[in-house]
């Protein structure tokens, strides 16, 4: 019995051990797969940064012309026809050579033998002076010359139906290339994550809906590949123009007033005047009157034997006038035809304006959709940034599958943006077709995104970063946070230890590559009494790459000293003297000098500070009301609005929305776009609090 119990216990132990081993293996496998997905996230998350590598707006007209192999000078066939007719009418002055011969068989005798002849011959010249002659041909020639002038005045650059189709293909091909490049990115992400996601699903660690979403992404990408690639492959044989790789076509707006003005009213009036003249020429009353002069040589072979033949010269004049002459009726015809011409021209102009207006409306509607998708992209940028923050902070809510799906959604938005651009370029083709000869660059302008109350992209923003922040955040995180928050300058406080200088050089290099200026923050109050501040500055600069630093930023604060109230004047004079020496040091380093000061320094001191500094940061803390801040910095803005930067701090505001609204109001009150944010660490916590509040 004891042996049986021991055996059962042994079996149970083995089973339990096996189960635990399997569970440990499963947990290890799950952890490995999640780490793999996190690796994919690290690999791809940088693609969420907006691509600013736009082509110049100057490339736009090239999409509406077709490259041909022929380089010969173009010839206008219609002009050749006009010239041939003009030359023909110039030669035709109404002269006509005439001749006739008559043979009489068995003529009889009459009372007058002189009238009896066997044969007669006549030769001469006829000259039609009016209708169907000299004067009429001059009018006809003038009509053709006018028509030739009209043809020359009209724009010669017209887009035929065949060219319209070819240009459409050209535009679609170029945009398809961009969409295919974006699909390649989506496909790469899907290829990397789909197998791992399937394994996690089989291990019951991934919801089926998440896996289905990835499969749907795969189907979506595959379908679009088939559309865009097949289309472009069919067009490659037509030598379709292509853009340089990595470039993005510009987005532009259309100036409706300039398109209206593009149809030159003076030119239209000139054409109308010539058309009116032609109506008058074609209805000249004089051309209904026939006046013909004639000159004849006459020869008669008479029957009479006494006078066998006779010859003589003769001249004559023929005049034919229609009755009644209808002068008034002719004027009515001319006037009616002119009115018809005016009506047709007005009707055509109105129809053209309506057609162009419809095309512009369609273009503007697509532009509105484009703006909406830009805002949608910003939303995904922010969601992706939040995922980065979660990962950096090792937040348990970070899910690499969710994060990678956000990247896919962002790339889908990018494809929609390219699609909308394509539609806008095609709408411009319609507008150009309806306005032949229009100067494209004169009627388009760079597109400016509409401003919103919370929009900060147009602002020039600096951010303070204290050295303690680098104990929590590495250089990559700092660079990414500043870039995502559109910070233009980092005001960096550093530790003086030589071992830390390599870190700072690496950070400064990353920031410079992203067009973020670095101001070296120095904040020792001992500088107030230092006879030679350059010694202290040298100790800070030692081991740093000075070329990566744009300015020395002094955060010296005499107003925090215990005896400030009793020795205010002395400290302020020391402060100005210190700035003077610091300016000399900065000039020697060929960098700028900037300072942070409170809102209450007296005007006479401000007037000494500003000439010494490239920028003056005013620390407008504690009172987060735009009106209050505007009043407090009025003196500084009066001295120099260009040099003054208003600094605010996160802890004075209840949330990011509140802060952004105050900055927007300050921009309007102070007419400035320069602000500074205090500081990196507090703003990260500020954002994390916002994320936590949205959970």
Molecular structure report:
- The protein is α/β, with parallel strands linked by helices and 695 residues long.
- It is built from 19 helices and 14 strands.
- The chain folds into two domains: 321 residues, Outer membrane efflux proteins (OEP), CATH 1.20.1600; 234 residues, TIM Barrel.
- The strands form three sheets. It has an eight-stranded parallel barrel with strand order 7-8-9-10-11-12-13-14, surrounded by four helices. Strands 1-2-4-5 form a four-stranded antiparallel sheet, with no helix packed on it. It has a two-stranded antiparallel ribbon with strand order 3-6.
- Strand 13, helix 18 and strand 14 form a beta-alpha-beta unit.
- Helix 7 runs antiparallel to helix 8.
- The radius of gyration is 45 Å and the shape is elongated.
- The two termini are 60 Å apart.
- 22% of the residues are buried.
Throw out a few tags for this protein.
single chain, alpha/beta, Outer membrane efflux proteins (OEP), TIM Barrel, 19 helices, 55% helix, elongated
């Amino acid at each position: 019995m004891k042996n049986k119990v021991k055996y059962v216990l042994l079996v149970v132990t083995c089973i339990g051990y096996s189960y635990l081993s399997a569970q440990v293996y499963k947990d290890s496998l799950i952890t490995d797969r999640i780490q793999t997905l996190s690796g994919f996230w690290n690999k791809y998350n940088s693609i969420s940064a907006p691509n600013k590598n736009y082509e110049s707006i100057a490339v736009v007209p090239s999409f509406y012309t077709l490259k041909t192999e022929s380089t010969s000078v173009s010839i206008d066939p219609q002009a050749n026809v006009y010239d041939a007719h003009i030359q023909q009418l110039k030669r035709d002055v109404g002269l006509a050579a005439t001749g006739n011969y008559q043979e009489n068989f068995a003529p009889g005798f009459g009372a007058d033998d002189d009238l009896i002849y066997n044969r007669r011959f006549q030769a001469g010249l006829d000259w039609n002076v009016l209708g169907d002659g000299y004067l009429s041909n001059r009018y006809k020639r003038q009509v053709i010359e006018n028509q030739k002038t009209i043809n020359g005045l009209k724009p010669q650059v017209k887009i035929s139906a065949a060219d319209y189709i070819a240009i459409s293909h050209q535009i679609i091909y170029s945009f398809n290339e961009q969409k295919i490049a974006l699909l390649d990115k989506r496909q790469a992400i899907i290829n990397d994550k789909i197998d791992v996601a399937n394994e996690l699903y089989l291990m019951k660690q991934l919801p089926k809906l998440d896996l289905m979403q990835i499969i749907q992404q795969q189907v979506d990408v595959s379908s679009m590949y088939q559309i865009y690639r097949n289309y472009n492959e069919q067009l490659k044989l037509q030598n379709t123009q292509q853009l340089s790789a990595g470039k993005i076509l510009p987005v532009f707006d259309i100036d409706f007033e300039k398109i209206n003005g593009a149809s030159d009213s003076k030119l239209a009036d000139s054409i109308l005047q010539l058309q009116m003249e032609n109506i008058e020429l074609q209805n000249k009353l004089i051309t209904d009157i026939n006046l013909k002069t004639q000159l004849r040589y006459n020869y008669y072979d008479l029957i009479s034997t006494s006078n066998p033949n006779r010859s003589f010269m003769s001249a004559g004049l023929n005049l034919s006038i229609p009755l009644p002459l209808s002068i008034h009726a002719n004027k009515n015809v001319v006037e009616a035809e002119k009115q018809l011409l005016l009506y047709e021209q007005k009707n055509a102009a109105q129809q053209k304006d309506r057609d162009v207006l419809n095309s512009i409306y369609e273009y503007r509607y697509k532009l509105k959709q484009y703006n909406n998708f830009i805002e949608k992209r910003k939303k995904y940028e922010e969601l992706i940034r939040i995922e980065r923050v979660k990962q950096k902070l090792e937040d348990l809510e970070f899910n690499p599958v969710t994060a990678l799906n956000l990247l896919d959604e962002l790339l889908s938005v990018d494809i929609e943006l390219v699609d909308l651009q394509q539609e806008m370029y095609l709408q411009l083709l319609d507008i150009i077709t309806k306005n032949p000869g229009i100067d494209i660059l004169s009627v388009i302008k760079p597109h400016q995104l509409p401003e919103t109350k919370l929009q900060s992209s147009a602002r020039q923003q600096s951010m303070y970063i204290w050295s303690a922040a680098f104990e929590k955040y590495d250089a990559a995180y700092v660079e990414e946070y500043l870039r995502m928050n559109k910070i233009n300058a980092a005001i960096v406080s550093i530790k003086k230890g030589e071992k830390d200088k390599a870190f700072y050089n690496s950070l400064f290099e990353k920031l410079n590559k992203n067009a973020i200026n670095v101001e070296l923050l120095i904040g020792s109050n001992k500088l107030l009494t230092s006879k030679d501040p350059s010694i202290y500055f040298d100790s800070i600069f030692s081991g740093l790459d000075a070329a990566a630093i744009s300015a020395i930023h002094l955060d010296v604060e005499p107003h925090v000293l215990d005896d400030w109230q009793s020795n205010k004047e002395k400290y302020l004079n020391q402060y100005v003297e210190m700035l003077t020496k610091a300016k000399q040091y900065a000039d020697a380093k060929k960098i700028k000098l900037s300072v942070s000061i409170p809102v209450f320094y007296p005007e006479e001191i401000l007037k000494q500070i500003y000439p010494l500094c490239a920028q003056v940061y005013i620390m407008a803390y504690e009172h987060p009301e735009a009106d209050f801040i505007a009043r407090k910095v009025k003196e500084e803005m009066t001295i120099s609005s260009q040099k003054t930067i208003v600094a605010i701090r996160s802890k004075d505001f209840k949330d990011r929305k509140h802060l952004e609204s105050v900055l927007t109001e300050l921009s309007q009150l102070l007419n400035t776009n320069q602000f500074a944010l205090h500081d990196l660490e507090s703003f990260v916590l500020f954002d994390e609090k916002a994320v936590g509040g949205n959970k």
